[in-house]
From TrEMBL:
<keyword id="KW-0210">Decarboxylase</keyword>
<feature type="modified residue" description="N6-(pyridoxal phosphate)lysine">
    <location>
        <position position="287"/>
    </location>
</feature>
<dbReference type="InterPro" id="IPR015421">
    <property type="entry name" value="PyrdxlP-dep_Trfase_major"/>
</dbReference>
<dbReference type="GO" id="GO:0016831">
    <property type="term" value="F:carboxy-lyase activity"/>
</dbReference>
<comment type="subunit">
    <text>Homodimer.</text>
</comment>
<dbReference type="GO" id="GO:0005737">
    <property type="term" value="C:cytoplasm"/>
</dbReference>
<feature type="compositionally biased region" description="Pro residues">
    <location>
        <begin position="27"/>
        <end position="39"/>
    </location>
</feature>
<feature type="region of interest" description="Disordered">
    <location>
        <begin position="1"/>
        <end position="63"/>
    </location>
</feature>
<keyword id="KW-0663">Pyridoxal phosphate</keyword>
<dbReference type="InterPro" id="IPR015424">
    <property type="entry name" value="PyrdxlP-dep_Trfase"/>
</dbReference>
<dbReference type="Pfam" id="PF00282">
    <property type="entry name" value="Pyridoxal_deC"/>
</dbReference>
<dbReference type="InterPro" id="IPR021115">
    <property type="entry name" value="Pyridoxal-P_BS"/>
</dbReference>
<dbReference type="GO" id="GO:0030170">
    <property type="term" value="F:pyridoxal phosphate binding"/>
</dbReference>
<keyword id="KW-0456">Lyase</keyword>
<feature type="compositionally biased region" description="Polar residues">
    <location>
        <begin position="41"/>
        <end position="55"/>
    </location>
</feature>
<dbReference type="InterPro" id="IPR002129">
    <property type="entry name" value="PyrdxlP-dep_de-COase"/>
</dbReference>
<dbReference type="GO" id="GO:0019752">
    <property type="term" value="P:carboxylic acid metabolic process"/>
</dbReference>
Length: 318
């Protein structure tokens, strides 16, 4: 009597070579524009999946080979084998890093990594949290800046809040307007500051926008500078922007999601000169440090700020 397979996958056909290797219908690597890779011939969409084509097999053949050493994109900087091995471990252990009881080792690792990132910023102390993406890190920062300026909003909501205005570069990431929309600030209250011919925020224009908001009776509360803009890779002049924030008592957040990793370069860290004066920083190690996606951190200079604003911090079961 034939043996009965213990796992349905035992009876599945062995997967073929991935489509980017030699000897397959795509003879040239898929990044060659002259010979674009096509989906497998038996792929006709979700309704036409053949019984002999497991989903995992299809996924390998129809996906872009992001692990290839010559694949580069906005979010990817190559494959790091140590990072890949670590991801195998985390997937196998399936941790949820919310209490020490559930994930003691990973909480300690997270704390060590965040403290090292804070050290690169030049802060003597601070706090941080990993987030699902740079957009969420920026939204967290807007929320913290608003709480810092109007702490009553946490309990009383927006009904008694003044008209708040935030400032950022014309070349900023779209997440700034999204954060204003999500948090009830309003996209019309995001004032965009002109940039120079290299895409960097002009400090004098920032000063003008702050004065404009004051004249309108609004309440300026936040400036978001960018270290590594999405399109041209511009780095805003942080020191000069920090001077203006200090003058007007504004929270300074730096969106260094892309460019933050330049802090590890002796040659290029000068691009972020003045970042130690920021109140908060968004930094995505998956964009230049070859960490797996997603690896995004929000770092805050005030080590008590995240705890102050966390509405569930005193929950008994935590």
């Amino acid at each position: 009597m034939p043996a009965v397979p213990l796992d349905p996958r035992d009876s599945m056909p062995a997967p073929q070579q991935p489509h980017w290797t030699q000897g397959t219908p795509c003879q040239q690597p898929p990044w060659t524009p002259e010979t674009p890779c096509q989906p497998p011939s038996n792929f006709t969409g979700p309704q036409g999946l053949h019984a002999s084509s497991p989903t995992g097999h299809l996924g390998l053949h129809a996906s872009t080979p992001k692990g290839h050493p010559r694949f580069f994109n906005q979010l990817y900087a190559g494959m790091d084998h140590y990072s890949l091995a670590a991801r195998f471990i985390t997937e196998a252990l399936n941790p949820s890093v919310y209490t020490y009881e559930v994930s003691p080792a990973f909480i300690l690792i997270e704390e060590a990594v965040l403290m090292k990132m804070i050290e690169f910023l030049g802060w003597k102390e601070g706090d941080g949290i990993f987030s699902p993406g740079g957009s969420v890190s920026n939204m967290y920062a807007v929320n913290l800046a608003r709480y810092n300026h109007c702490p009553d909003i946490k309990e009383k909501g927006l009904s008694q809040a003044p008209r708040l205005v935030m400032f950022t570069s014309e070349e900023c990431h779209y997440s700034m307007k999204k954060a204003a929309a999500f948090l009830g600030i309003g996209t019309h209250n995001v004032y965009f500051v002109k940039t120079d011919d290299r895409g960097k925020m002009i400090p004098q224009e920032l000063e003008k926008q702050v004065e404009r908001a004051n004249e309108e009776g609004a309440v300026p509360f936040l400036v978001i500078a960018t270290s590594g803009t999405t399109v041209v890779g511009a780095f805003d002049p942080l020191d000069e922007i920090a001077d203006i924030c200090k003058k007007h008592n504004l929270w300074l957040h730096v969106d260094a999601s892309w460019g933050g990793s330049a802090l590890l370069s002796r040659k290029y860290r000068k691009l972020l000169h003045g970042i130690h004066r920021a109140n908060s920083v968004a930094w995505n190690p998956h964009k230049m440090l070859m960490a797996g996606i997603q690896c995004c951190a929000l770092l805050v200079k005030d080590k008590n700020m995240l705890m102050k604003y966390s509405s569930g911090y005193w929950t008994s079961f935590l």
